[in-house]
């Protein structure tokens, strides 16, 4: 399912991919969503340092690009969960080699062993 939000704006596939991931926090948002759906507050705590406003903006962009799905439950108080779409899962899988490279070459061995 190709993303059509910015048709004709790309010079190559990498350019198109980077436009979806453009934003300091987007990859850090996608990572926990690969494990399970998150409520907004949970996701904000998981993505250390992101502000509520920026998280909202980046989630909306990821939703518009078909990467993240937003589920609103008809409850009081309202409950909203964010999860990856199948396209988002494919994108996260494409990021796995980058995560492995960073873990191998840039992280302290203690942090890697502890899983933090």
Automatic annotation (TrEMBL):
<dbReference type="InterPro" id="IPR036388">
    <property type="entry name" value="WH-like_DNA-bd_sf"/>
</dbReference>
<keyword id="KW-0804">Transcription</keyword>
<protein>
    <submittedName>
        <fullName>Helix-turn-helix transcriptional regulator</fullName>
    </submittedName>
</protein>
<feature type="domain" description="HTH hxlR-type">
    <location>
        <begin position="12"/>
        <end position="110"/>
    </location>
</feature>
<keyword id="KW-0238">DNA-binding</keyword>
<keyword id="KW-0805">Transcription regulation</keyword>
<dbReference type="InterPro" id="IPR011991">
    <property type="entry name" value="ArsR-like_HTH"/>
</dbReference>
<dbReference type="GO" id="GO:0003677">
    <property type="term" value="F:DNA binding"/>
</dbReference>
<dbReference type="Pfam" id="PF01638">
    <property type="entry name" value="HxlR"/>
</dbReference>
<dbReference type="InterPro" id="IPR002577">
    <property type="entry name" value="HTH_HxlR"/>
</dbReference>
<dbReference type="InterPro" id="IPR036390">
    <property type="entry name" value="WH_DNA-bd_sf"/>
</dbReference>
């Amino acid at each position: 399912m190709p993303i059509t939000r910015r048709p004709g704006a790309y010079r190559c596939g990498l350019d198109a991919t980077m436009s979806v991931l453009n934003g300091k926090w987007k990859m850090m948002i996608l990572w926990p969503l690969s494990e399970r759906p998150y409520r907004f507050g949970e996701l904000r705590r998981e993505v250390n340092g992101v502000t509520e406003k920026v998280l909202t903006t980046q989630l909306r962009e990821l939703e518009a690009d078909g990467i993240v799905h937003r589920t609103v439950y008809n409850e009081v108080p309202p409950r909203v969960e964010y999860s990856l779409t199948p396209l988002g899962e494919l994108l996260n899988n494409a990021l796995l080699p980058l995560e492995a490279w960073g873990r191998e070459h840039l992280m302290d061995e203690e942090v890697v062993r502890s899983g933090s």
